[in-house]
Specification:
The protein is of the alpha/beta class. 22% of the residues lie in helices and 27% in strands. It is globular. Bound molecules: beta-L-fucopyranose.
């Protein structure tokens, strides 16, 4: 079963990732940890600008790389000598976490922290003492900059068998975070609260269970196969929904030479459809540049993307008809399923004796249906059937899918229909259908 925090987290759907640090200035993706602190000098840093763009792009929060693999801390940590304090930026008085957490509060956005376990700089790395360092850093962050809505633990460790190897005390890290901030969602390959979706393209599996078996698995090299992370486990023991991480650019950090390679609004929409539209959350990386600002290329693409979402999903055609809940042949009007509230729902059993129907007053051209499942009691639908009918009640189109989860966006070639029905063919327990919305979206946005 999900926790309240996980349900609230799923409702956020989409937010920003901000990879920022020495790599922004050196052109690297994985800093070596030997970079001089002086390279970090974002003279025009303006976290309000990041927040304004996040807001305009419809994102719900910003997650910052407080410390990436190179070990540089974007806050003046007492437990490192490789931080903003050692840089020239603001004469060593700057603090990116402070500025971003304040800006997020001001703009009503959630503030998240990525803290890389792998550290190529810290002298204690590779010894048990590093676990103390990591715990102390967590304490600094959660005490001084919270609330932190989500914490990211990256599974990457590129040093390989011949490099330093850290035995991480994740159980201890988790305990510290839970105590300081019980509602923070902890992300890693295997959770405990949110899992990696198994790729960095931003695509969740078409079948995507929020459940995962974690017994016997570890973060990083010992994680479950990427295919399992992508699809989840239908009978998995733990509720650990997927989060899809992807960058708006080829790299995670800003590199000027990639200005021409920023994803287009249409590409971003496709990513959204294959992440949020498959029941996962989307963390879209928008890396600030050397000035400390989001570039005009990224912001233009993001505004375009948000416009596509607005145009696509602002006119729910279900509202042009009546939505019925059918039980044992008895039809009753329901207002629960197009009220934009996934806390209200109708229960549909797999027996076929219960279904949902939309009757349009006039035939409607549609090519997109958005379903939502109420997940409070767990994720249940394993196979659904949508039928589109004409005025003679003949089935003119059938669509089947597997999981629904938090949200499922289904697209298909434009079809004019008088009625639509939704039934469940296979499920783990009665499915709680929370929303059924119907749209006519731009033909170019149909999933291929
Ligand atoms: C990976 C890292 O190695 C990349 O640099 C980036 O931070 C990405 C989000 O996760 O594992």
């Amino acid at each position: 079963m999900p926790t309240q925090s996980q349900l609230a987290w799923q409702d956020m759907e989409y937010y920003f990732f901000a990879h920022f640090g020495p790599n922004t200035f050196t052109g690297l993706e994985w800093g070596k940890g030997t970079e001089k602190a002086e390279v970090f000098d974002p003279k025009d840093l303006d976290c309000d600008q990041w927040c304004r763009i996040a807001k305009a792009a419809g994102a719900k929060g910003i997650m910052i790389t407080a410390k990436h693999h190179d070990g540089f801390c974007l806050w003046p940590s007492k437990y490192s000598t490789h931080t903003v304090r050692e840089s020239q930026w603001k004469n060593g008085k700057g603090d990116v976490l402070k500025e971003l957490s304040a800006a997020c509060k001001k703009y009503g956005l959630k503030f998240g922290v990525y803290l890389s376990p792998w550290d190529r700089n810290h002298p204690a790395y590779g010894t048990p003492k590093y676990n103390d360092v990591f715990v102390n850093m967590l304490k600094e962050i959660f005490t001084n900059y919270g609330p932190v809505w989500e914490l990211w633990w990256d599974g990457a460790n590129g040093e390989g068998p011949n490099g330093k190897k850290q035995v991480y005390d994740f159980a201890r890290f988790e305990k510290v975070v839970r105590k300081l901030s019980p509602n923070t969602i902890i992300f890693s390959d295997i959770g405990p609260d949110a899992r990696w979706c198994g790729n960095e393209k931003g695509y969740a599996g078409k079948t995507n269970w929020d459940l995962l078996d974690t017994a016997g698995f570890k973060r990083g090299a010992g994680a479950p196969p990427t295919d399992t992370l992508n699809h989840g486990n239908v009978w998995g023991k733990n509720f650990i929904p997927a989060e899809c991480d992807v960058s708006i650019r080829p790299g995670w950090f800003y590199h000027q030479k990639e200005d021409s390679l920023v994803k287009t609004p249409q590409q971003l929409f496709e990513i959204y459809s294959k992440s949020v539209g498959r029941g996962a959350n989307l963390i879209l990386n928008v890396p600030p540049d050397q000035r400390g600002l989001i570039s005009k290329y990224d912001s233009a693409a993001l505004i375009g993307f948000n416009k596509l979402r607005d145009q696509s999903f602002s006119n729910d055609l279900s509202k042009k008809g009546e939505v019925f809940y059918i039980k044992n042949g008895k039809k009753t009007v329901t207002t629960q399923l197009d009220d934009g509230n996934n806390k209200t729902f109708e229960t549909v059993a797999a027996s076929g004796s219960q279904s949902i129907e939309i009757n349009f007053k006039d035939p409607q051209k549609i090519n997109c249906i958005v379903l939502q499942e109420n997940l409070k009691e767990g994720q249940h639908c394993a196979k659904f059937l949508i039928q589109l009918r004409d005025k003679n009640n003949q089935v003119i189109k059938e669509i089947t899918g597997t999981t629904i989860g938090h949200k499922r966006i289904v697209t298909f070639p434009e079809t004019e229909a008088n009625r639509i029905s939704l039934s469940i063919l296979s499920q783990k327990a009665s499915t709680r259908i929370a929303e059924i919305e119907t749209f006519l979206i731009d033909e170019k946005l149909i999933e291929r």
